[in-house]
Amino acid sequence: MYLFTGKIVSNRQLTRDIRYLRITAPAEFCRQAAPGRFVMLGCDDGLFDPLLKRPFGIMNRGDDWFEVLIKEVGRGTLQLGELAEGSCVSGHGPLGNGYPEVDSELRSKDSSPLILVAGGMGIASIASCLLFNNRRPLNPDCKTILLYGAARLDELLLLDEIEKNSADLRIETITDDGSSGRRGWVTELLENELRQHPASLTFACGPEPMLKNVQQVLCKFKTRGYLSLENRMACGFGVCLGCVQKMAATGDNGAGESAKVCTQGPVFPADKVVF
Ligand SMILES: Cc1cc2nc3c(=O)[nH]c(=O)nc-3n(C[C@H](O)[C@H](O)[C@H](O)COP(=O)(O)OP(=O)(O)OC[C@H]3O[C@@H](n4cnc5c(N)ncnc54)[C@H](O)[C@@H]3O)c2cc1C
Ligand code: FES
After folding, report:
1. Of 256, 147, 239, 159, whose CA–CA distance to 194 is shortest?
2. pLDDT, tens only, 186-224
3. Domain 2-95 adopts which CATH fold?
4. Pocket mutation for ligand 2, best pick of 52, 237, 264, 268 (most atoms within 8 Å of C-beta)
5. In CATH, what number does 102-228 get?
6. CA-to-CA distance for 21 and 35, rounded, in angstroms?
7. What is the DSSP string of 226-246?
8. What pTM does this model have?
């Protein structure tokens, strides 16, 4: 884990309350920033208000920069979202485990696609699987499908960038209000795909109710997947226990187990998470 001060290279406003920030970081941070890992960020103004940094998925990275998508929902995200180019942020990371490598061992049938499911801001984490690879398929003989759901058309973010930077990708979108041409939940798209390719591997990130539904769909089709959780966090590196998530018991005594999302996750096998 690296503690660093980064500079805002760019801050694009994508919607009324969503910002896309590029931030400088040490080269070693960028090298270790695998898809699905995250970073804790706060303003570097010396005021420590709010005291705690906030967690964000690392959406993309270069040799000495990384990018995050920030939805302004409270004090911490509003402050970060307002930072002008050249302002400083303090960060620590990269943190967490990230998505597993897509190798033949993980996929049960070579011809089955990898299905990426993003709900709302979950696109930041999911898109890292595509953008980090710099136009190389996640696995040479593995097709990838991105299923992306949002509340409205204008909240389907950065589709052009994702498409331009991803080889062999099919994208299907859906919105709560039908403004993208299809009305409904992203889990409906997942069911359609799994009906055709029941041996697919699925990675998903989004709000908890969506992840719960993804888990049920995967269970229904008896297929494997991984969920990236976004529990509230205070430290990000395993000391505060603020992020603990209930997990399925693995021992004989039947007692429930728990996991720290920041260090043991945020990505977990879908059948292990107890919502
Ligand atoms: C691993 C991880 C990755 C994340 N990635 C992103 C990302 O890429 N982009 C992004 O915009 N956000 C992301 N989040 C969520 C983000 O960290 C929170 O929105 C942020 O911490 C809120 O801080 P705040 O000070 O603005 O809001 P607060 O004042 O702390 O809270 C404002 C409101 O937001 C709710 N809230 C706060 N944190 C969360 C949370 N984790 N989940 C659901 N509701 C929450 C609070 O209950 C409250 O209603 C991620 C969270 C985690 C744990
Ligand atoms: S956020 Fe502190 S233990 Fe996970």
Report:
1. 147
2. 999 999 999 998 888 999 999 999 999 999 999 999 999
3. Elongation Factor Tu (Ef-tu); domain 3 (2.40.30)
4. 237
5. 3.40.50.80
6. 17
7. EEE-----SSSSSSS-TTEEE
8. 0.95
